[in-house]
C-alpha cells in the first residue's frame, strides 16, 4: 500500500542502480594513464608500490573462483593478482594496525611490519580529494619529490577525467613509519585507480516508468560528484538540468534552503553521509512526500527506519539494514522496486474493483423487501436466493477481480494520496446509484413481465408455492445474474476499455462467469433442486428480458 502511494524514491547507486560488479578499468601512475589490461603496466614506474597498496591495504580475500568481501576491495585484489601473483604477501608483511574506512574519514590506512630491521610500511587508499591532502611527496624516477600545488592540480584533473567516464576513483599512497599505528601525515602519492560498475540494463526503463508515474527518483551516494553525475546521465536520472549536491554544500544549507531544493525534479546527492541521507528523508516527509529509501549498510538503518518504506538489499545488505527496513529486495535491483510499486497500485485498484462489484448486488437484494413493505408488492426475491447470490454467484467473479493484472496506464497515473479511501463517494454512487439500480430494474422488469403474462393483476392473490410466482422469482434471480456478468466485465477496468485490457486475459473471471451461469441453470432446470430454492424452469424469453439492462450497465460502466 505504501509503495503504491510513493512519491519520491531515495536510492543508492552501487548495487542498486549499478550491477555491483566492480572492475578496475584504469590505473594512473604518475602522469600516465594505463588500461588495466595494457601490456607493460607491471613494468611502469611506481607500479610496485601501487601494487603493494592494492594488495595489503585491503580486507577482501581471494578464493578459488573469485573473492570474499567488499566489491571495491575485491576488484583491487583481482587486478593485483592478475598483474603479479600475491602469494604469501600478507604473511611476509603482517598487519600491525588498521584505521578503517568510514563515511567521515573516507580513507583506509594499514600499517605492516617490514622485517629485517626495516621501518614499518604504511599504505593508504581512499577518496582522492582526501588522500591528496595527506600527501606531501610523490614518486618521480624512484625518488621522493615535493607534491606541490601544480602537481596536485594535475592529479585532480586526471581524477575528473576518470570520474567523467563514470569510474569510481580511489587514490593510493604509502610511506615508511617507525610506529605500529601510522599517522595520517607525510604520505607519498602513488597514483589513481578507476573502477567501473556498469549500470543495470533495465534501470533506464524503470526510471522512465517512475517519471511517467509521477514519482521522483533521487540518487544519494558517497561517490564523487562527477562520477555520480555521469552515472545519473547514463541511466536517465538526468534528462535536463539536474543538480548534483555535494555533502559539504548540503551541510551548509538551512532548513528553508533544503526545503526549496527538495522541490527540484532531478537531484543527485554526492559525497553524502548517512546522517545527510536521513536529513533528506525527513525534509521530504515534512513536505508531505511519501518516501521510499533503499540502503544496505549499518549506517543506512536510521534512514531506512524513518522512511515511509525502507527497502534493504538482500544480497549485499547487512543484517542491521534488513532489520530496520520494511522490505528486503532479494536481487538488490532498483527495477524490482518499480515492479513492487506497480504491484502496490494494482492491489489497491483491484480491491476497489472487488468492492464495487460486491456492493452492486446489494441493491437488487434489498429493494424487493422495501417494495414488499412499502407498496405491498409481491416479494420478488427470497432469502434463499439472496444467499445464493452472496455465497454462490458473487464469489468466484469477485475473486477473479482480485487477480486482475495491472492496467496499461497504472504507471502513468500520479501517485494516489496516502489518505485516499477504498470507499469513495464516486464508487458508492456508481455501485448503488447506477449499476445497482439497473440490476434491480432488470429484476423487477423480468418479475412483473412474467407475472402479467401469466394473468396476474396488481392486488390479486399470488400463492408463493404456485408455479407462476416461482417462475417470476426465478426470472428476477436470472436477471440479477445476467447483469452481474456485465458488471464483473466492466469492473475489470477503471480507466481503459475492456478490449484494450484483453477480454480473455483473466481466466479466473471467465471461470467465475461460467460458474454463476451454471448455478443459474442448475437451480432453474434441475427438478430436485427447485423445491429447495423455490424456483421453476425458465426459458430464453425470461433470460432475454435482462439483456437490455445488462447492455445499459456496460454503457454506464
Structural notes for this entry:
The protein is of the alpha/beta class and 557 residues long. The protein is 47% helix and 17% strand. Strands 2, 3, 6, 7, 8, 9, 10, 11 and 12 form a nine-stranded mixed sheet that branches. Strands 14-15-13-1-16-17-18 form a seven-stranded parallel sheet, with helices on both faces. Strand 16, helix 11 and strand 17 form a beta-alpha-beta unit. Helix 6 packs across helix 13 and helix 17 packs antiparallel against helix 23. The protein is elongated and about 120 Å long. It starts with 7 loop residues before the first strand and ends with a helix.
Assign an overall shape. Answer: elongated
Compute the number of strand runs: 18
Fraction in helix: 40-55%
Provide the β-strand percentage band. 15-25%
Number of helices: 23
**Protein structure class:** alpha/beta
Name the average pLDDT.
90
Most strands sheet: 9 strands, mixed
Taking pLDDT < 50 over at least 5 consecutive residues as the criterion, the unreliable ranges are: none
**Radius of gyration, taken over Cα atoms and rounded to an integer in Å:** 35 Å
Distance between the termini: 26 Å
Amino acid at each position: 500500500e505504501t509503495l503504491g502511494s510513493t512519491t519520491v524514491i531515495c536510492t543508492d547507486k552501487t548495487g542498486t542502480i549499478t550491477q555491483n560488479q566492480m572492475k578496475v578499468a584504469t590505473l594512473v601512475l604518475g602522469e600516465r594513464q594505463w588500461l588495466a589490461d595494457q601490456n607493460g603496466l607491471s613494468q611502469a614506474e611506481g607500479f610496485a608500490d601501487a601494487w603493494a597498496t592494492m594488495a595489503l591495504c585491503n580486507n577482501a580475500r581471494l578464493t578459488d573462483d573469485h573473492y570474499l568481501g567488499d566489491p571495491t576491495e575485491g576488484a583491487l585484489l583481482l587486478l593485483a593478482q592478475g598483474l603479479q601473483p600475491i602469494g604469501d604477501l600478507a604473511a611476509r608483511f603482517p598487519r600491525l594496525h588498521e584505521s578503517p574506512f568510514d563515511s567521515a574519514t573516507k580513507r583506509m590506512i594499514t600499517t605492516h611490519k617490514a622485517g629485517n630491521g626495516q621501518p614499518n610500511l604504511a599504505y593508504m587508499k581512499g577518496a582522492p580529494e582526501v588522500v591528496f591532502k595527506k600527501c606531501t611527496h610523490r614518486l618521480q624516477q624512484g625518488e621522493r619529490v615535493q607534491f606541490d600545488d601544480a602537481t596536485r592540480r594535475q592529479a585532480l584533473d586526471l581524477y575528473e577525467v576518470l570520474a567523467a567516464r563514470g569510474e569510481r576513483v580511489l587514490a593510493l599512497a604509502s610511506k615508511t613509519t617507525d610506529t605500529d599505528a601510522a599517522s595520517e601525515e607525510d604520505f607519498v602519492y602513488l597514483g589513481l585507480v578507476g573502477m567501473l560498475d556498469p549500470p543495470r540494463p533495465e534501470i533506464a526503463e524503470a526510471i522512465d516508468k517512475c517519471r511517467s508515474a509521477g514519482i521522483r527518483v533521487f540518487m544519494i551516494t558517497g561517490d564523487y560528484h562527477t562520477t555520480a553525475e555521469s552515472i545519473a546521465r547514463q541511466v536517465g536520472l538526468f534528462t535536463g538540468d539536474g543538480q548534483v549536491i555535494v555533502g559539504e554544500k548540503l551541510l551548509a544549507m538551512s532548513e528553508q534552503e533544503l526545503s526549496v531544493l527538495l522541490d527540484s525534479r532531478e537531484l543527485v546527492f554526492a559525497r553524502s553521509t548517512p546522517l545527510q541521507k536521513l536529513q533528506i528523508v525527513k525534509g521530504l516527509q515534512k513536505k508531505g512526500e511519501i518516501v521510499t529509501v533503499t540502503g544496505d549498510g549499518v549506517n543506512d538503518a536510521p534512514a531506512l527506519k524513518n522512511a515511509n518504506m525502507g527497502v534493504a538489499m538482500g544480497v549485499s545488505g547487512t543484517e542491521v539494514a534488513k532489520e530496520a527496513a520494511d522490505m528486503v529486495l532479494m536481487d538488490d535491483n532498483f527495477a524490482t522496486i518499480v515492479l513492487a510499486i506497480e504491484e502496490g497500485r494494482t492491489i489497491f485498484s483491484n480491491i476497489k474493483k472487488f468492492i464495487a462489484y460486491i456492493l452492486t448486488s446489494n441493491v437488487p437484494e434489498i429493494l424487493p423487501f422495501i417494495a414488499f413493505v412499502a407498496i405491498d408488492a409481491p416479494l420478488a426475491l427470497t432469502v434463499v436466493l439472496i444467499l445464493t447470490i452472496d455465497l454462490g454467484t458473487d464469489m468466484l467473479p469477485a475473486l477473479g477481480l482480485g487477480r486482475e493484472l495491472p492496467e496499461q496506464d497504472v504507471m502513468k497515473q500520479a501517485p494516489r494520496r496516502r489518505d485516499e479511501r477504498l470507499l469513495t463517494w464516486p464508487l458508492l454512487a456508481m455501485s448503488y446509484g447506477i449499476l445497482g439500480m439497473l440490476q434491480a430494474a432488470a429484476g423487477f422488469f423480468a418479475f412483473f413481465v412474467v407475472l402479467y403474462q401469466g394473468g396476474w393483476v396488481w392486488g390479486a392473490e399470488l400463492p408463493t408455492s404456485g408455479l407462476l410466482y416461482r417462475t417470476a422469482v426465478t426470472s428476477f434471480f436470472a436477471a440479477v445474474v445476467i447483469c452481474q456478468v456485465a458488471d464483473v466485465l466492466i469492473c475489470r477496468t477503471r480507466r481503459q476499455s475492456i478490449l484494450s485490457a484483453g477480454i480473455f486475459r483473466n481466466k479466473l473471471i471467465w471461470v467465475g462467469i461460467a460458474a454463476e451461469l451454471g448455478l443459474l441453470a442448475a437451480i432453474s432446470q434441475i427438478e430436485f433442486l427447485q423445491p429447495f430454492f423455490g424456483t421453476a424452469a425458465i426459458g430464453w424469453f425470461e433470460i432475454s428480458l435482462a439483456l437490455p439492462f445488462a447492455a445499459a450497465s456496460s454503457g454506464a460502466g
